[in-house]
Amino acid sequence: MPAGTESLFTYGTLQLEAVQMATFGRLPAGAPDALVGFAIAPLVIEDPAVIAISGKAQHTIAQYTGRAADTIPGMVYAVSLAEIESADTYEVAPCQRVSVVLQSWRRAWVYVDGRHPPLRP
User: Fold this and answer.
1) Which residues pair with 74 in a beta bridge?
2) Preceding omega of 94 cis (within 30 degrees of 0)
3) Is 71 helix (H, G, I), strand (E, B) or coil?
4) Residue 121: helix, strand or coil by DSSP?
5) CA distance 16 to 27
6) 83 φ, ψ to 5°?
7) CA 8: distance to chain centroid?
8) CATH H-level, domain 5-113: superfamily
9) Residue 16 to residue 102: CA distance in whole angstroms
10) pLDDT attached to residue 116
11) DSSP H/E element including 88
């Protein structure tokens, strides 16, 4: 991975082309991976700007369970720090960006339920 490149794991609307174009200004290269120790839960979106970008009033959020059997499939993208900061603006409360180790043993940023964040690995 080139210097200055970050890994961002996505499992929801950040995988949508329209969201990527609005958030990153491009379609980043990605590879399949999985988030271990988390389960998917629904997240109602009230921010009209986020709904306009994603086209959805209900997104998903990763909730920490700590159980190895709980996994969330998704994609890990190579993005810049500026693109991560743009994604920070797109994501709504209670989403919190944390650093995790994915199923592949790759370290990546991911947005999870900040009301119940994981312990730092």
Assistant:
1) 33
2) yes
3) strand
4) coil
5) 9
6) -70, -35
7) 6
8) Gamma-glutamyl cyclotransferase-like (3.10.490.10)
9) 21
10) 79
11) helix 81-90
